[in-house]
């Protein structure tokens, strides 16, 4: 067995989202020196079960093995048929197991990818379940950086409390780029309401869901943001008016935005 090859594959499997659990089995398979072999990984996401089959193949020219791809079977609750998709391993930033699950749930994932010329580029990925490729996979749509989807700018159109704290904002965006359905605190009429959001690069927006996972019309969120901005402007205008009628009163700062306590996501 090629020890360096084992160490490389071990790290590759780990950082593609399968952890250390397959390490001993990987070593055993490599020691047998068969032309190809597979490893199986089980994962639970809520009430859904995902089974990944990792595919390894030995080089024709050396004793090196390569981790080429993994196939995911997603068994959703209340569904008799499993959803299948194969994800290919590249030299660059591979789609992790959790990202694969998020893609198969219909959400979008942001990745730094490498083209055929070896050049790095950034793109959002989303599975198109209406189209299949010749290999049996569902088509994987890409929305490149030139497509014009700006997640940060899109989020600022909504009254989300986490955006007020740079650290929480960064964590929120990082989670959404991995394809996660992320909880967020919406400010509505002075109240904090927990909702869920996901990136929607195709339509350059975000999808918003309430606590019962019912989709909320984006127009409502925009109206809430506009309402909050209008209320803030009215309060500032009222304070300025009070200042002009009371010459002996203390000077009021131009920025009268009330500070809100930030909370961890």
Order of helices and strands: HHEEEEHEEEHHEEEEH
Biggest pleated sheet: 4 strands, antiparallel
Q: What is the CA-CA span between the terminal residues? A: 46 Å
Please list the strands of the largest sheet in the order they lie side by side: 1-2-3-4
Mean pLDDT: 84
What's the quick description here?
The chain is α+β, with helices and mostly antiparallel strands. It folds into two domains: 3-147, no CATH class; 151-239, no CATH class. It is built from six helices and eleven strands.
Task: Give a written overview of the molecule.
The protein is built from 6 helices and 11 strands. By secondary structure, it is of the alpha+beta class. The protein has 2 domains: 3-147, no CATH class; 151-239, no CATH class. The radius of gyration is 25 Å and the shape is elongated. Residues 256-265 have a biased composition (Basic residues). Residues 219-265 are annotated as: Disordered. It comes from Flavobacterium frigoritolerans.
């Amino acid at each position: 067995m090629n020890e360096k090859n084992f160490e490389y594959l071990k790290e590759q499997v780990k950082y593609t989202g399968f952890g250390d659990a397959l390490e001993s089995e990987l070593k055993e398979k490599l020691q047998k020196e068969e032309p190809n072999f597979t490893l199986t990984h089980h994962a639970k996401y809520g009430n859904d079960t995902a089974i990944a089959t990792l595919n390894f193949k030995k080089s024709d020219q050396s004793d090196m093995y390569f981790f080429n791809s993994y196939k995911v079977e997603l068994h959703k609750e209340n569904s008799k048929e499993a959803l299948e998709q194969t994800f290919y391993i590249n030299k660059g930033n591979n789609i992790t197991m959790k990202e694969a699950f998020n893609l198969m749930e219909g959400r979008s994932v942001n990745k730094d990818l490498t083209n055929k010329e070896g050049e790095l580029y950034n793109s959002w990925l989303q599975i198109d379940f209406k189209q299949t490729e010749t290999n049996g996979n569902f088509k994987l749509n890409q929305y490149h950086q030139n497509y014009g989807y700006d997640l940060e700018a899109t989020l600022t159109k909504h009254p989300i409390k986490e955006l007020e704290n740079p650290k929480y904002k960064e964590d929120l965006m990082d989670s959404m780029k991995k394809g996660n359905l992320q909880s967020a605190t919406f400010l509505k009429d002075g109240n904090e309401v927990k909702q869920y959001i996901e990136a929607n690069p195709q339509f350059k927006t975000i999808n918003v869901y309430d606590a019962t996972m019912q989709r909320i019309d984006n127009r409502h969120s925009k109206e809430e943001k506009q309402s909050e901005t209008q209320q803030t402007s009215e309060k500032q205008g009222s304070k300025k008016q009070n200042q002009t009628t009371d010459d002996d009163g203390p000077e009021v700062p131009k920025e009268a935005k009330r500070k809100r306590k930030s909370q961890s996501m």
